Automatic annotation (TrEMBL):
The keyword Cytoplasm does not apply. CDD domains: NAT_SF. Gene3D superfamilies: 3.40.630.30. It comes from Micromonospora haikouensis. Residues 6-150 form the N-acetyltransferase domain. It holds the Pfam family Acetyltransf_1. Keywords: Acyltransferase, Transferase. The keyword Coiled coil does not apply. One of its GO terms (molecular function) is acyltransferase activity, transferring groups other than amino-acyl groups. This is L-amino acid N-acyltransferase YncA.
Length: 274
């Protein structure tokens, strides 16, 4: 692939502080700090051909986009253009289109035939003009932790533990099983152990004390509850005093037992975490 025309260039690890500052302006709800962003650029997700471009105007990062093959699905030829955004003062000058072109030019030789992107409401006309069709609505909710009631007790035969008390091999089967019916444009049915390690377990933002797992002792009520190990989890990432509820899941055979609420309210009540 030839280099994109200036001012768009491939992102560098040292862009991380500027990328985080720009993202905080356009997508203030996202929690991903400088160290984690630097690592994402320096050591991208294996097997996904992940790359990112920035718009660099007078040595200031004023635009960002990343592009990769979606590695968590068995659906062939499916890619993502993620978080395309341009600083509000630099819009309407072709930077968004140039970043999008660089992203799509990166994906085309990989055999990607369908691409998912995320757009704010205000950017839907731009996305439509570039050939995207609105599909699903994504919503984020904010929670002020001081107002969270105490957690309900866990179901019989289940213990709640901080993620720090289990290993990756115990969490991986639960994450994989819970993801199978995750709502989305393509099934999340092919998350490799390598990708789990990269995205979740080795993620610099993962808070292992606040993230909580529900572990069954194999003696729970009902036939479907008879297995042992991690049966529900709530994973959170942190940057300073902000936390991102990254992924809460219950293994299909254990749904309807009231496990999701105790795992999530466990971390939300940990006021001593600051
Ligand atoms: C969507 C977004 C990335 C567009 O960024 P941008 O830099 O303003 O994009 P462009 O300048 O390339 O295109 C915007 C308009 O400016 C016009 N334009 C003005 N001057 C231009 C120039 N010199 N060259 C090319 N286009 C120019 C384009 O024709 C385009 O008009 P159109 O939307 O009617 O086609 C930006 O609005 C944004 O960050 N939005 C919030 C984040 C978001 O939701 N992103 C999702 C994108 S799918």
């Amino acid at each position: 692939m030839s280099d994109p025309p200036a001012p768009v260039r491939v992102a560098r690890p040292d862009d991380a502080p500027d990328v985080v500052a720009l993202r905080a302006l356009v997508h203030p709800y996202i929690v991903r700090g400088v160290a984690s962003t630097r690592k994402m650029i320096a050591e991208p997700s294996p097997g996904e051909h992940w790359t990112a471009f920035v718009a660099d105007v007078d040595r200031a990062v004023v635009g960002w986009v990343s592009a990769y093959r979606e590695g968590r699905t068995s659906t062939d030829g499916f890619g993502c253009v993620s978080l395309l955004h341009v600083h509000p003062d630099h819009r309407g000058r072709g930077l968004g289109s140039a970043l999008l072109t660089a992203a799509l030019d990166h994906l085309a030789p990989l055999g990607i035939r369908r691409v998912r992107a995320w757009a704010l409401d205000e950017a839907l006309p731009f996305a439509r003009r570039h050939g995207f069709t609105p599909g699903r609505e994504l919503r984020y909710s904010a929670l002020e932790l001081r107002s969270v009631p105490p957690p309900p007790p866990a179901a019989p035969g289940v213990r709640l533990l901080p993620l720090a008390d289990v290993g990756p091999d115990e969490l991986y089967p639960a994450v994989r099983a819970a993801a199978v019916d995750e709502p989305g444009d393509v099934p999340v049915d092919a998350m490799s152990y390598q990708s789990f390690r990269y995205e979740i377990w080795d993620n610099l933002g993962l808070d292992r004390q606040a993230s909580t797992v529900a572990v069954a002792d194999g003696k729970g009520a009902g036939e479907e509850a008879a297995d042992e190990g991690v049966v529900a989890f709530s994973l959170v990432k942190r940057d300073g005093d902000r936390m991102w509820s990254d992924y809460t899941g219950t293994v299909p055979g254990h749904r309807g037992r009231g496990l999701a609420r105790p795992v999530t309210s466990q971390w939300s009540c940990l006021r001593e975490l600051g």
